[in-house]
Design goal:
143 residues, mainly alpha, 5 helices, 0% strand
């Protein structure tokens, strides 16, 4: 293991960990949005005049946004991995893999609290009636 390999394992591990936690959080957000859509649809099928349901448009916009983010982060992971393997001949075995994994896990865990809060906001936006509209109005008033 030389200095270049160690630097590469640390750098790519940190970037990989951050991209991976973002991709995972966006996959979870997609699941939240789909659940919110199905829940709203079920309520409207059960009662024609269902009150307290989140609008379809809000969930669909949110689903599109988090899907694009998920696609972006997964693409960055994929092409970053190809770049590191082809350009620097980095292999995921031995001490390099251990160092890479440790740094990736530390980087991912450092963003875990922020991703948890973001997931809670997305859950509320896709499930709580009028939360997304109130949030948007508040942002417009502040800006």
């Amino acid at each position: 293991m030389n200095a270049t390999t160690i630097t590469l394992a640390i750098g790519w591990g940190a970037i990989f960990g951050l991209l991976a936690i973002h991709a995972l959080a966006n996959l979870l957000a997609i699941i939240f949005c789909l659940h919110g859509l199905l829940l709203t649809r079920w309520k409207r099928l059960a009662k024609k005049a269902a009150i307290g349901c989140v609008k379809y448009g809000i969930n669909l916009r949110l689903l599109l946004r988090v899907s694009l983010y998920c696609l972006l982060f997964c693409g960055l992971l994929y092409y970053g991995d190809i770049f590191v393997r082809n350009e620097f001949r980095f292999q995921y075995h031995g001490n390099d893999a251990i160092l890479f994994t440790v740094v990736a896990v530390i980087a991912a865990l450092s963003r875990l609290k922020a991703m948890r809060k973001r997931s809670q906001v997305i859950w509320r936006m896709s499930h709580d009636f009028d939360y997304a509209e109130r949030r948007q109005r508040t942002r417009m008033l502040k800006g």
